[in-house]
Automatic annotation (TrEMBL):
Name of the protein: N-formylglutamate amidohydrolase
Single GO MF descriptor: hydrolase activity
Region (Disordered): 1-42
InterPro entries: N-FG_amidohydro, UCP029730
UniProt keyword terms in alphabetical order: Hydrolase
Amino acid sequence: MTSSTSSDGGHGPVAHDRPVTAPFPARAGDVPLLGPDDPPPYTVVNPQATGPLLIVCDHASRALPRALGSLGLPEEELERHIAYDIGAAALSHRLAARFAATAVLSGYSRLLIDPNRNLDDPTAIPVISDGVVIPGNRALDAHAQAQRVDAVFRPYQEAVGQQVARIRASGQVPILLSVHSFTPTMRGVARPWHIGVLWDRDPRLPVPLLAALRADGRWCVGDNEPYSGRDTTGGTVETHATPAGYPNVLLEVRQDLITDDGGVDLWAQVLGDALAPLLSAADLTIIRHYPRV
């Protein structure tokens, strides 16, 4: 594993190819996708926090714009993992409180548009998810797709970028903690892990976190399970942390463990206790790039 240290030379968001700061101009006479009764595209918790930790929750909400109804899905499908990461929002709030950290949470369902994808990824606006066809996402024209990008995708990513820039402007190196959850069974296959730690090349936070969680002795801990963080592109971490050399880690907690307040409280404590002694490590205060080779 190779690494190098460098300075970003400024306080602005990282430059990258993913278009998150230049919305398309609205068409004359367009009816906005989001109305006055719809929730905002993101929520910022503790926006004036003074520490370097930034928590992001890409799949925090199952909300859909009133104008699009249920995308043609019955209510029971919107309660499943295909619509959002069950328990992830509550866990993000608890961790933000534990560390007095800023958190940015998405405001809409991943079925509308997934903020943790490249815009050219065919799953960014999924037509099918875990075997369920999404009627409202079939045969969308370019304008309908652009509405979702402008109303939901870009504002969330810009909000993350603004918080990253604020932390840099304070003279600190941001530490990104991405909070997700995963379904216990996928396509009929049971997943044994209680928690997965996803990472690419930067070992500074994930490797000691894996060790701390395993040392607890109670949990089945996945190293890049049930998904891999290696060589991924277009996600929030890959947009705002990896190219800038900021330390980062993505957590996947099994959803059946955080479906109620008791489970969320337990996992906020488990993760908080594991993370607390790690976040002050000296190597997390350094901008360091780990190139993909």
